[in-house]
Amino acid sequence: MLIQHTLRYLPAQLLSPLAQLLSMVLWTHWLSPQDMGVFTLVTVTQEIAYLLCLNWFSVYALRYLPPAQDREGLRRYLVSENVVVAAGTAAGVGVAGVTAWALAGDGEGLAAAAAIAAYFVTRSASAHYAERARAQSAFMAFTWLQTAGPVGGLGIGLLVMQHVQADAWALLWAYALAQAAGIALALPSLGMRWQWAAPDRVLLAAAARFGAPLIGLGVLGWIGENYIRYLVQWTEGAAALGLMIVGWALGRRCASVASMVVTTAAFPLASRLLNEGRRDQALQQLRTNAALLVAVLVPVTVAVELLGATLVRLTVAEEYRALTTQMLALSVFAGALRNLHMHVTDQLMVLERRFGMVARIDVFEITVCTLASLAGLKLGGLHGAVIGQAFGSALALLLSVHWARTRLGFVWPVAETLKVLAASAMMALALHALKAPQTLQGLILAVLVGSLAYAAAMAALFWPDLRRLVAATRAAS
């Protein structure tokens, strides 16, 4: 069942982040640094608006949506949902107005507010109904809602940039149109009830009680991931943010996409084991998850460090190229550190319902990262700010692992981590033995050589484990 569901969700889980990676590169060829900075601030502000206005009800739907057999319960939910979505939409439009006031230039106020509001409303609705689609196992609806924005926005955005207007507001309209199309395609299969009536107060109270703590954790997580954007905007301006954001966002996205390969199906499995009372097996599963996560993140970080300059030179517009080259590998490294504790030890704390521990780690990471990034910004400019972020995430990882070990009995897979580091070193040696790639063909060859070297080293280092796995597979068949 888990594998089947994972495969059905896979198109959305892969297409969306890949489209986001590609779009970040492509927009450097059309958007000025000022417009790039404005666009990225609007997109991250939408995330916090959604967390505060609608996410509390989305997570309740994911957990407690009444089944189709409970017709009365489902009716009460759907009627209440209409009111909540409408109220959340109104609140989002208000936040969009404030955002436009803060970011728009002279004479752009009304047009900017309309573009931001359209993006906010369609993106928030897509996110909410995607969670409901997950609750209903409506795989096609989920795919439409998750991919229409990133993939459709990329396609429509390219047309708009080439033939209409190349600025942040036009791009926001392109994404809003794509997201609206995704909603229109998905809603017919979600069983909507177009009826306006007073919401069920008991249901709303239950949703608020369930969603409030998760909102707090979500906001802290959002701050930890996005604070640096506002810090740079505040201290250096939107143009500096636009120049920095390409390398930073590409690096963070590389780390998150690499993590997704492991974490998509891993957390539910550990959760099921814990729910069944098999805590020792759940801890072992999380140790395996940690080892797999390290095995993905370390070689990706090393490969980006060695090949990133060529990749940037071949793909990113010249205006952004120098700073992107400086930022890329360091951003992947900082993102990898954050993903390690978020998807392993922090998840154990969530499974054990130790929300206070997770919150304290988040607050610690935000505080240290902010202070270190400010110091780095003063001493080393934008590059120093990302160094400060990596420093804060490294300390947060150490704290999270320490608490997971001393308070929850989790043991980090040290031996496996050392083997991964050794295999990554062998990959690095193989890449150094090649002549530095100058063309796309050379870059592809270097990736293939590095991948083969890493796979061979991992097979040699984990040979006993592979033999046991093969024997177990044969015995099962």
Helix percent band: over 70%
Question: What's the overall geometry?
Answer: globular
How much of the sequence lies in strands comes to under 5%
Radius of gyration: 23 Å
Number of strands: 0
Q: Give me the strand/helix succession.
A: HHHHHHHHHHHHHHH
**Secondary-structure content class:** mainly alpha
Q: Overall mean pLDDT score?
A: 84
How many individual helices? 15
Query: Can you summarize the main beta sheet?
Result: none
Cα distance spanning the termini: 18 Å
Poorly predicted segments? none
Explain this structure.
By secondary structure, the protein is mostly helical. 87% of the residues lie in helices and 0% in strands. The chain contains 15 helices and no strands. The chain has helices at residues 2-26, 33-53, 55-64, 71-103, 109-135, 139-163, 168-186, 201-236, 238-275, 279-315, 318-351, 355-408, 414-433, 440-461, 463-476. It is globular, with a radius of gyration of 23 Å.
What is the gist of this entry?
The protein is mainly α. Helices cover 87% and strands 0% of the residues. It starts with a helix and ends with a helix.
Name some characteristics of this structure.
477 residues, mainly alpha, 15 helices, 87% helix, globular
Helix/strand layout:
Blueprint: H1 2-26, H2 33-53, H3 55-64, H4 71-103, H5 109-135, H6 139-163, H7 168-186, H8 201-236, H9 238-275, H10 279-315, H11 318-351, H12 355-408, H13 414-433, H14 440-461, H15 463-476
Helix pairs in contact: 1-6, 1-9, 2-4, 2-5, 2-7, 2-8, 2-9, 3-5, 3-8, 4-5, 5-6, 5-7, 6-7, 8-9, 8-12, 9-10, 9-11, 10-11, 10-13, 10-14, 11-12, 13-14
